[in-house]
Write a structure and sequence with these properties.
By secondary structure, the protein is α+β, with helices and mostly antiparallel strands. It has four helices and six strands.
Length: about 130
Amino acid sequence: MTATDNIIRSEPTAGFITRFENRFNSRDFDGIMADMTDDCVFEHIGAEGHSFGRHQGQEAVRAVWHALEEVFPGYRFEVDDVFAAGDRGACRWTVRWTQPDGTAASLRGADIFRFRDGLVAEKITYTA
């Protein structure tokens, strides 16, 4: 652990959130989960029929990350904007993927984070 890691662990920063979000592009699920509490919560709130629902705990949340490829084949997230203060943070993003018929698709969303002890305790995703 470096001195920078200690700062990130003591208070969430925009850099921490950006790194966390970008790990989805490299499918670094171990790194993502290492930045989440044991009792972490992921909740996706989207249009009816397009929500991932609510998941709690390392195993359940990791399973959702692994399923992203099925829903968004070849996905890539682009971080549009990040904010962090105290134990809260937010990220606006765009995800792009290729439909089974070969056409490009995209979706915009926002993640709201709650941190505890320098780790992500809750990630709530909103999409239209």
